[in-house]
Design brief:
The structure holds 2 protein chains of 2 kinds. Chain A is an alpha/beta fold. Chain A is about 45% helix and about 15% strand. Chain A has 13 helices and 11 strands. Chain A starts with 12 loop residues before the first helix and ends in an 8-residue tail after the last helix. Chain B folds into 3 domains: about 180 residues, no CATH class; about 290 residues, no CATH class; about 100 residues. In chain B, strand 16 and strand 17 form a beta hairpin. Chain B is elongated and about 115 Å long. Classes of the chains: A alpha/beta, B alpha+beta.
Chain lengths: ~325, ~675
């Protein structure tokens, strides 16, 4: 079977899959037992989307983000969000140089290929907005000058959903900017033992070497965008998003951006598998991480502790999978 | 399409309800089923169109309105209507089993059939929304219940099976047409009809025995208080001869009117193995009667002191004017209460050739004919042998025994008549006094006949007096009370004997029919010294207990249950095979889609929870063991992905997809027999 079916030129799906495999293997040297989360994170990278990792403290959110950043040969930066962090610390500021007698732009931490925004919900809303604006527009505007961030550009944000004191909850409209939301979760016992032994041996994210350069990553991203999406599969994705909007306990469902994110992530998933075309299974695989954080439940459902994951699972079960070309 | 399915479901229920026709008669069932079902169908169609949420309720209500109007009488329903409906739903199924068939189409008996078919229709209409074959289950159960009541005769069964298969075809066609188009629908429609035809023809090659099952035969409860046996009353009646018993008008020639038949004797008392049942519309002559029968009738009016037994005949056909219980084997009627009654009795009278009767054989299989006689006193058996001169059991030996009693014993009349009918009294009568009334003559004849192997029973009733009333009828009084023996003759039934002779009758009896033929046979009996056995009759055909010959070319049809079972056993696998063939032959990638549909249906038939949101990969995850099933589904998923979503022109997708389906089927075939059996009957 020709794995590159559906690609027209440039990097093939098979080559993109090899890059994904190299990155996954590199990350798994430090992050153990989290193959699915790593695969999803790589999919977000290939889809050129941003990733929100949300989980309890100590399960490896930041480690996963740092490992992913270190695996890419480009520039990466880490921003620890705190209440006193200012927007200029992120985006950069204009500084007056007496010698040149002019203002010069000092780029902020956001000017990197991979930006790790640690504990993003500890930043003030103003700072969060600055960050999220960069995520959406991939450029920074200071004093009427616009500065493009390097490509590929990816923000990997982490946040702790339990500890609420001193935090500022991300606005729903801005959460929508994240391509997907991941939950790392606790590893199984064997994986935890491996993580402990690796730590004893001194293996850290800082020891990882880049396994792909930005140029190759850009080609991989381009290859992903060329993956074939059958109209029936696109219609299936749109139906899933529409079904979340029509769900009885959902106040605000997935937007059009959600449908687009669904297909784009599925394209990345297909490429990671070495396929140049998207299948309904790809859509189903990514539906949870892509759609769950976009759902706003009704107050009654919130009180009933209804889980968005359960709602997405129900939608997947009740929406007919496509069998013929639309 | 909905209307077509609902019509088919209603038709199936109608056909199933009509299978009760041996119980009630077709004419009684047609309006009682047709009107309610027509109303229910109209309500279902209109409800689907305008009030889908209320469809079931509307269907049931419309059907009930039809039931009320046709079975309980026209008019607005009242509280009594509800009580009747409740009684019909809870009791009628049981009461009809206590009746002879065809049963009277009265609400208390027939109501459960229209209620059942209305319920089957309402349920079937709802199930038709899910699965065409599932919609037939309620009507099928009604058909099965009808077969439990009475197996349908061969030809009507074949016609019903074909019509039922046609409705199944319409249902399948309507269901298939929704998703696969008309050609597939036609195939589905033709399949069950073809199967039914094949099953019908094949069943014709299978010898069929008469049905040996059925609910029919429950006795009706007899509620009256204990009454004196007519046999015990005989002496009292003869002691009060002038008392009127009943009057007969417009009577055909008939010499006696039996009240009760006794067929069991333990040496002390004579008892009857009566199993009284409600009398239906018409009774046939008994199975034992093979000669031509004529219909006779008479109007009878009993006195208020009479009862609870009514004057009857051996083979009553119908009774108008009262609603008695009937003992079919004896022909006796029981009113259930003491009091006067006026009724018209119609009965069957065997038309017998006297010459043939003289040489006729007895029927040892006649029910009650060879009951016990208790401990036989010494000397009685020798007396019996002496009476017939060693003749083997036959009507000739029965007549010889009758002549022996007539010539050697004397009937007494007047006061101080001997009474009793146990062995002490019979021994006194037979060996010492040789004087008695019809009570001793008849009982003595029966015990002697049974000792000789002649099937006999004891009847108690009245003779017809010789003198007519001015209006041409007869007034029967206590003086006419009589006991007499009856002998079972092969092909004729029970033939009354006269061991007391004319002395008992005391007058010239009206003659005709069986009595006249017996009289002629009596006169043709040779003198005692010339008596010999008549020519042995040809070996009787081996009969089954219920009278149906065994080994004859059976009914060419095995009946509805067999057809339905065959249809179910073969129909579903054939239908699934046809469906798979249609899917496989679709053009291009639609054949690949058909493979996925086939795999889904196969798994669903094996009880796997399959939802519309499942891809082949999901199916593989929930697939039951053995492992070949999951592997086949994963292989199918790969083919589907490549054929449907890659955009490449893949020509070899269909064969590979169907190869994967075969792998799945082979895997499923290795599952347990329960799972496979369940899957075999799921479409």
């Amino acid at each position: 079977m020709n794995m590159s079916t559906g690609m027209s030129s440039g990097m093939s799906a098979g080559e993109a899959a090899q890059i994904a495999a190299r990155i996954a293997a590199n990350v798994e040297k430090v992050v153990h037992g989290k193959a699915k989360a790593i695969r999803l994170a790589i999919a977000a990278l290939f889809a050129e989307g941003h990733l929100l990792i949300e989980d309890v403290p100590g399960v490896g959110k930041t480690t996963l983000a740092r490992c992913l950043a270190r695996s890419i040969g480009g520039k990466w930066s880490r921003i620890q969000f705190t209440p006193d962090l200012l927007p200029g610390d992120i985006t950069g500021v204009m500084v007056y140089h007496q010698r040149e007698e002019q203002f010069a732009f000092h780029a902020g931490a956001v000017f990197a290929n991979v930006v790790v925004a640690d504990e993003i919900n500890r930043g003030t809303p103003k700072t969060q907005s600055a960050m999220l604006e960069v995520m959406a527009e991939r450029r920074v505007t200071v004093e009427n000058f616009s500065y493009e961030v390097p490509r590929p550009f990816m923000v990997i944000a982490t946040q702790n959903p339990i500890e609420m004191e001193g935090t500022y909850r991300l606005p729903e409209a801005q959460v929508d900017r994240f391509l997907m939301r991941l939950s790392v979760g606790y590893p199984d016992l064997d994986a935890e033992v491996r993580a402990v032994l690796a730590d004893c041996a001194g293996a850290t994210a800082d020891d990882l070497q880049p396994v792909v350069d930005p140029a190759a990553l850009r080609e991989a991203v381009a290859a992903v965008r060329r993956s074939r999406v059958d109209p029936a599969v696109a219609r299936y994705a749109a139906r899933l998003a529409a079904a979340t909007r029509e769900h009885a306990v959902v106040r605000v469902g997935a937007s059009v951006r959600g449908s687009i994110a669904l297909v784009r992530t599925a394209q990345a998933f297909a490429a990671i598998d070495g396929r140049g075309y998207v299948t309904p299974d790809d859509i189903k695989d990514v539906a949870g991480p892509v759609l769950e954080h976009r759902l706003l439940l009704t107050p009654e459902a919130e009180l009933d502790r209804r889980d968005p994951a359960e709602i997405v699972a129900g939608v997947l079960e009740s929406t007919p999978t496509p069998l013929v070309n639309a | 399409m909905n209307a077509a399915r609902q019509s088919a479901v209603t038709a199936a229920a109608f056909i199933a309800g009509l299978l009760f026709f041996p119980v009630f008669g077709t004419a009684a069932l047609l309006p009682r089923l047709g009107v309610p079902l027509a109303l229910a169908l109209a309500a279902a169609i209109l409800g689907t169109r305008y009030l889908p949420s209320w469809r079931t309720l509307l269907t049931v209500l419309a059907g009930l309105v039809g039931v009320v109007q046709t079975s309980l009488g026209f008019g607005p329903p009242t509280g009594g209507t509800l009580r009747d409906l409740w009684a019909g739903a809870t009791d009628s199924w049981r009461l009809v089993l206590q009746s002879t068939w065809p049963a009277r189409p009265e609400p208390e008996l027939v109501l459960f059939v229209p209620l059942l078919v209305v319920a089957a229709t309402a349920l079937g209409v709802e199930l038709a929304q899910r699965s065409p074959l599932l919609a037939l289950v309620p009507s099928f159960l009604v058909a099965v219940l009808a077969q439990c009541y009475v197996p349908t005769p061969p030809w009507p069964a074949a016609v019903a099976a074909l019509l039922y298969a046609a409705t199944a075809g319409v249902l399948l066609a309507a269901g298939a047409g929704l998703s696969h188009g008309a050609p597939a629908g036609s195939l589905y429609a033709a399949a069950p009809v073809t199967l039914a035809l094949v099953a019908t023809v094949l069943s014709g090659l299978v010898p069929a025995a008469p049905a040996r099952y059925g609910f029919h035969g429950s006795p009706a409860p007899v509620t009256f208080a204990r009454v004196t046996s007519p046999l015990d009353e005989l002496a009292y009646r003869l002691a009060h001869p002038a008392t009127e018993a009943f009057r007969v008008r417009n009577a055909a020639a008939v010499d006696r009117w039996p009240l009760v038949v006794f067929d069991a004797f333990d040496g002390i008392a004579w008892t009857s193995t009566d199993r009284y049942r409600r009398m239906g519309t018409d009774l046939p002559a008994g199975d034992a009667v093979e000669v031509r029968v004529r219909s006779r009738s008479a109007e009878i009016e009993t006195t208020p002191a009479a009862g609870p037994w009514l004057p009857s005949q051996t083979w009553p056909a119908r009774v108008r004017g009262v609603d008695p219980l009937v003992e079919e084997r004896h022909g006796t009627l029981l009113l259930g209460e003491v009091g006067g009654a006026r009724y018209t009795l119609t009965w069957w009278q065997p038309d017998v050739d006297a010459d043939a009767l003289g040489g006729a054989a007895v029927d040892p299989l006649a029910p009650g004919g060879t009951g016990g006689v208790g401990p036989v006193p010494p000397g009685i058996a020798e007396l019996a042998a002496q009476a017939v001169g060693g003749l083997r059991p036959s009507l000739r030996s029965a007549l010889a025994l009758e002549r022996f009693l007539r010539e050697n014993y004397r009937v007494v009349t007047g006061a101080n008549l001997p009474t009793g009918h146990g062995w002490p009294q019979l021994r006194e009568f037979l060996l010492s006094s040789k004087r008695g009334t019809s009570e001793q003559f008849a009982t003595a004849y029966v015990v002697l006949a049974r000792i000789l192997g002649i099937p006999a029973r004891l009847a108690v009733g009245f003779r017809t007096p010789s003198a007519r009333d001015p209006d041409g009828g007869y007034t029967v009084r206590n003086a006419d009370a009589l006991a007499w023996p009856e002998v079972a003759v092969r092909g004729v039934g029970w033939v009354p004997m006269e061991p007391g002779g004319a002395q008992v009758a005391g007058a010239t009896l009206p003659t005709g029919g069986l009595a006249a033929a017996t009289d002629r046979a009596r006169t043709q009996l040779p003198a005692p010294e010339e008596l010999s056995d008549p020519p042995a009759p040809p070996a009787a055909e081996q009969s089954t207990p219920d009278g149906a010959p065994d080994g004859r070319p059976s009914s060419p049809w095995a009946g509805v249950p067999v057809l339905l079972l065959v249809g179910l056993a073969l129909g579903v696998p054939v239908a699934t095979g046809v469906r798979a063939g249609v899917r496989r032959r679709r053009p291009g990638i639609r054949a690949v889609v058909g493979a996925v549909e086939e795999a889904r249906d196969r798994l669903r038939a094996h009880g796997v929870p399959v939802s519309v949101g499942m891809t082949p990969r999901d199916l593989a995850e929930v697939a039951p063991g053995p492992p070949g099933v999951a592997e086949g589904l994963r292989r199918l998923g790969r083919v589907v992905d490549r054929s449907l979503w890659s955009g490449a022109l893949v020509d070899d997708g269909a064969p590979e997809a169907w190869a994967a389906v075969r792998e799945v089927r082979r895997g499923l075939a290795r599952r347990g027999w329960r799972s496979r059996l369940r899957a075999a009957f799921r479409y």
